[in-house]
DNA sequence: ATGAAAGCGCTAACAG
DNA sequence: CTGTTAGCGCTTTCAT
């Protein structure tokens, strides 16, 4: 077993043909005789040949790479989006490359820059709130830019997601229609998670329209987690015993809220409302309200758009794909 | 704003120097005059220059890429490992590239092959149970191979993880020592998740040593989820009302089990035991037993080993890094 | 059906 | 401190 990475040239020598013929045979080009192809394949096999994509991509001027930039990994939502992208790319010969920003704008800029240096065929980024400098860099890359998850803003190119402001509004409307009157809010670091902030803003706007307001709220300064949601809910319940509904920044926080109401024996009079429609939320022993975000689908649609950049011309399927999350568990 | 990707050569022309000088200036080489450097930097800025890593890597024969292959994305454990790797790589100039196998051995082989074609500087793969063919390919790549999560088997090169057989054994011992006697088991598709199978085997071995056995069990045929754990637990509780402890394939399943015992008002007499030490498990309204897997740490250690391949020679820190998960919630 | 030449954009290795 | 030459491993294009 030689530990030396073999090249096309070596396979060519072993098969007694030229580099070009090996290249063609390995890629399954039609104009190679069966006999030659077989000899080449055997030689490649014997030498444990693995093509060098750096050389391939540099030479052919295409990488078939799809850069994907997400803010976090600790919220299951983004891994699910990534899984959707991976899945949607399958069979296309394209490869996703992921970068994580930790909700940090400066880090996001650098990561995008790094990714662009690999000359991806398309790039998928989370949200519409990149600073001008980043937008300029993305525009300049001259590849399809696919912004996902959020719809509230001005897209650079393609946009796949949902309006978080509207999601917040609709949830507020549904809860009010169901008779809820005294609302609380529990959230995590909203300055980082902009989309959660948009949902809260939409929710609050509708409250105001109905001459209502959040009676009490608790904001954490870390990222969302079940434990944080539980902790803050206990605090809020102590401070405001008369709430009949609490809106959360997302389902992780809401699950914690559900646990808190269980511990405080308040499950009968307080309705917990979250966002995402996590698998966990549906399995809880108490019903909670949530909006199902089609995150896997968003990933798959984004992948399809990215594939468009791999083949011939763009399928010119709409530049904007809007989803409307379904609300469950309110009544 | 020109949409054309500029090259070193163009920056060189704009700055009135040679390609080489630009290359040096951009990389911050020490032997470039301040004046020249400034002119180059300005020219690069003005042209929106972004280096081409394909060319860089092909020329310098190093990619500083770390290939990472994990089985799944829907179990939060792997995103956490990936976050640990990303984190551990930060500041090293190395970039992680992720691939997902869906617990499919054939897919894993192809993904590894694809990743190797990018000539990564190191590769991190999950588990020790790759088929011979895959092992041969990995050996042949002549880069550090870092196998993570599992310790039960023969590593190719570096190994970072824990013994799942022992984790199962230790949990069984702890539960028996705490007085539990009538055990049930609830798991997901064990033929896919080999590590869960190893934990179960270790657990059962200790039961046998104590002349005990699983009184009843339920195995799902899909991947683990909270809902599946809940569903199977309800079934098991109906079939075997006299259990005093149920061991689960992991904490997701165990959380579902906890919900089921809550719904069945059996939280007082049945102890739920899982694996991983998820954040969720700690926040549940009922105590459950679990072993904390140091998954983030595993990612960070793996990243450190991968970095070793980027710099000079290997720090030769032990080839095997073994963790022993801490058990909580038993008593 | 096969091969030869040129070049993708960069850096290594030498000059000077 | 700066420039020149060669070449990384492959594909493209043009011959034959």
Descriptive overview:
The structure is a homodimer of 331-residue chains. In chain A, helix 5 runs parallel beside helix 13 (295-308). In chain A, 44% of the residues lie in helices and 17% in strands. In chain A, the strands form 3 sheets. Chain A has a 6-stranded parallel beta sheet with strand order 2-1-3-4-5-11, sandwiched between helices. Chain A is of the alpha/beta class. Chain A has 3 domains: 8-51, lambda repressor-like DNA-binding domains (434 Repressor (Amino-terminal Domain), Orthogonal Bundle); 60-161 and 295-323, Rossmann fold (3-Layer(aba) Sandwich); 164-292, 3-Layer(aba) Sandwich (Rossmann fold). The first copy, chain A, is elongated and about 85 Å long. Chain A has helices at residues 8-15, 19-26, 34-46, 53-60, 77-89, 105-116, 132-140, 164-177, 194-209, 226-239, 251-263, 279-283, 295-308; strands spanning 65-70, 95-100, 122-126, 145-150, 158-162, 183-187, 214-219, 245-248, 271-273, 290-292, 320-323, 326-328. In chain A, strand 6, helix 9 (194-209) and strand 7 form a beta-alpha-beta unit. At the A-B interface, helix 4, helix 5, strand 2, helix 6 and helix 7 of A face helix 4, helix 5, strand 2, helix 6 and helix 7 of B. Chain B binds a DNA duplex (16 and 16 nucleotides) through helix 2 and helix 4.
């Amino acid at each position: 077993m030689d530990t030396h990475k073999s090249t096309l040239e070596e396979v060519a020598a072993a098969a007694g043909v030229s580099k070009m013929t090996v290249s063609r045979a390995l890629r399954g080009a039609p104009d190679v005789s069966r006999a030659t192809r077989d000899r080449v394949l055997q030689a490649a096999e014997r030498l444990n040949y693995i093509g060098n994509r750096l050389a391939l991509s540099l030479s052919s001027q295409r990488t078939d790479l799809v850069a994907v930039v997400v803010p976090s990994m600790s919220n299951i939502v983004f891994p699910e989006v990534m899984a959707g992208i991976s899945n949607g790319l399958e069979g296309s010969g394209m490869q996703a490359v992921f970068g994580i920003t930790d909700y940090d704008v400066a880090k996001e800029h650098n990561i995008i820059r790094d990714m662009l240096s690999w000359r991806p065929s398309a790039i998928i980024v989370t949200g519409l709130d990149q600073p001008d400098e980043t937008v300029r860099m993305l525009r300049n890359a001259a590849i399809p830019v696919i912004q996902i998850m959020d719809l509230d803003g001005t897209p650079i190119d393609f946009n796949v997601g949902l309006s978080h402001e509207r999601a917040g509004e609709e949830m507020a409307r549904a809860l009010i229609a169901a008779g809820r009157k005294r609302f609380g809010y529990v959230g995590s670091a909203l300055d980082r998670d902009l989309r959660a902030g948009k949902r809260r803003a939409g929710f609050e706007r509708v409250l105001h329209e109905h001459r209502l307001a959040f009676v009490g709220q608790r904001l954490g300064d870390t990222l969302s987690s079940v434990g944080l949601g539980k902790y803050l809910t206990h605090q809020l319940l102590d401070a405001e015993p008369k709430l009949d509904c609490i809106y959360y920044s997302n389902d992780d926080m809401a699950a914690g809220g559900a646990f808190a109401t269980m511990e405080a024996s308040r499950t009968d009079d307080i309705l917990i409302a979250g966002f995402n429609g996590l698998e966990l939320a549906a399995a809880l022993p108490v019903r909670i309200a949530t909006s199902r975000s089609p995150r896997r689908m968003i990933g798959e649609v984004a992948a399809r758009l990215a594939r468009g950049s791999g083949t011939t011309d763009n399928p010119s399927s709409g530049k904007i794909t809007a989803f409307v999350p379904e609300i469950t568990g309110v009544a």
